[in-house]
Amino acid sequence: MITIKNDEEIQKMKVSGHINYLTHEYLKTLIVPGITTDYLNEEADRFIRSHGGVPSFLNYNGYPKSICTSINDEIVHGIPSKRLLEEGDIISIDIGVLKDGYHSDAARTYPVGKISKQDEELIFHTKKMLMIGLEEVKNGAYIGSIGAAISTYAKKHELSVVRELVGHGVGKNLHEDPDVPNYGKYNTGIILKTGMVIAVEPMINSGTRNIIQYEDDDWTILTRDHKNSAHFEHTVVVTDDGYKILTGE
Ligand code: MF3
Ligand code: CO
After folding, report:
1. Is the pTM of this model over 0.85?
2. What are 198's strand-pairing partners?
């Protein structure tokens, strides 16, 4: 069931989204070679709680940590650990915040020190693809147009779009209807309505789109060819003439 949020709910989701945004801004300042992803997890957990929120991911379907940290060929759902960040890595950080009964969900890929030109481009284009997907969002638009715009851009830049994982509605639950695929056809699927809140989250690979699941932890999703992957996500509310990002400034 797709829910339409009223103004009071949107207001609460804005607060949740703002804490999410601030957490990203804070973690960004900590990312240097030599720190562990556990450190980022602990700092995120503390930061979210000190702002009156709760990390949405902790214990979600048994997930053991407060954020996801996915390095290099890890696409999403990497679990923070004692692994050290190294110069030249790229790290995707995915954060969920629950505040006053409403979730927000946002991800970004960050460079660790100096990274390769290819990874710089991967990050640049993936961020761009999130915005290009969002350009399709407005009251009366078809949800399929989001993925169509993203996959058209990806093709042009010889990048590949992960299909097994998709964006989603957000609200009282972290994952709600509808699914928001990053591939598809223009003018297909459900019609977006003012007040729907969705997370758009392209996961883009440098190499093949194929994925594998890391067996040791049952969570981490990696690229099958072990080439790098990037992930950008915003939670947005559909408006009459476009969208408003809830996980931005
Ligand atoms: N933001 C992630 C997604 O939308 C959610 C991860 S929840 C976790 O897929 F618990 F699995 F980490
Ligand atoms: Co999400």
Report:
1. yes
2. 169, 236
Q: What is the pLDDT of residue 249?
A: 83
HSE-CB of 50 using CA atoms within 13 angstroms: 9
Ligand 1 mean position to 110 CA, how many Å?
18
For the chain, which residues make up each domain, given as ranges?
A: 7-245
pLDDT(215) > 90: no
Report, as an integer, the average pLDDT of 144-152: 98
**Domain spanning 7-245: which superfamily?**
Creatinase/methionine aminopeptidase superfamily (3.90.230.10)
180 is written with which tokens? Answer: 């928001």
Show contacts of 175-178: CB within 8 Å, 24+ apart.
Answer: 176/2, 176/3, 177/1, 177/2, 178/2, 178/143
The rounded Å distance from CA 77 to ligand 1 centre is: 6
User: Which residue has the least CA distance to atom 2 on ligand 1?
Assistant: 94
Query: H helices then E strands: how many in the chain?
Result: 4, 15
Distance (Å, whole) CA 217 – CA 130: 28
Both tokens assigned to 208: 């093949």
Closest CA to 188 of 126, 136, 232: 136
pLDDT digits (tens, 9 = 90+) for 124-135: 999 999 999 999
Q: Which helix (H) or strand (E) holds 10?
A: helix 7-30
* Pairwise CA distance, residues 13 & 38, whole Å: 27
**Ligand 1 in reach of 74 Cβ (< 6 A):** no
How much distance in Å is there from the Cα of 106 to the middle of ligand 2?
7
DSSP-derived 3-state class of residue 142: strand
